[in-house]
Amino acid sequence: MGLFRRLFGDGAPDGFTGSLEQDETVIAHAAVTGGGHLVVTSLGLWVPGESPRRIGWHLVSKAKWEGALRLVEAAEASAEGPVVLLEDLPAHRFALDDPQRVMRAISQRVEGSIRHRERVESPGVWILQRKIPGRDGVVWQARGDAGVDLAAVREAVAPFASKLAG
Questions:
Q1: Which of 43, 47, 67, 138 gives the lowest tally of CB atoms within 10 Å of its CB?
Q2: Which distant-in-sequence residues (6+ apart) come within 8 Å of 117 by Cβ?
Q3: Which helix (H) or strand (E) holds 113?
């Protein structure tokens, strides 16, 4: 652990039980109504639960304020060549007493992870090139809009993936 952390702590809120990586920096945090904290770090968003867990910025599909934070996490479902196909998991809602700083930090980190984006209008697929926090390089991802199944995403991405593969 670095000297700064030993002297001043890691910046996480009191009661946070997650295990931050050595080079992980806390950017913002907010108490969640009902217990726990959302903790924004350089590597991802820590969400509360029995044991807090971190969602890497490259796997945050949506984060929107709707009277509470509505967070949609993506799971890596399969691949089409060099493109990882994502499926959205069910949304989580987190009621926050003071969302301003956390919402701004989340938005900056999610947008900052995106290096390139393009849209396949029919059937409704986003193709993204994203930086994975804490690693060198980028990853190509594709995710369909709500209601677009994985087979349709694969079909829409196939021409793009074959161009990437060379």
A1: 67
A2: 126, 127, 128, 129
A3: helix 100-113
Query: 71 pairs with which residues across the strands?
Result: 63, 92
H or E stretch covering 44: strand 44-47
Q: How far apart are alpha carbons 28 and 10 in whole angstroms?
A: 12
Q: Do 39 and 29 touch, CB atoms closer than 8 A?
A: yes
- pLDDT score of 86 more than 70: yes
Tokens of 76: 């890596």
Residue in the structure block whose two tokens are 């946070």? 16
Rounded to the nearest 5°, which phi and psi values hold at 159? -60, -40
Pairing mode, strands 83-88 and 92-94: unpaired
pLDDT in tens, 90-130: 999 999 988 999 999 999 999 999 999 999 999 999 999 99
- Do residues 132 and 140 lie in contact, with contact meaning Cβ atoms separated by under 8 Å? no
pLDDT tops 60 at residue 8: no
Beta bridge partners, 70, equal 64, 93
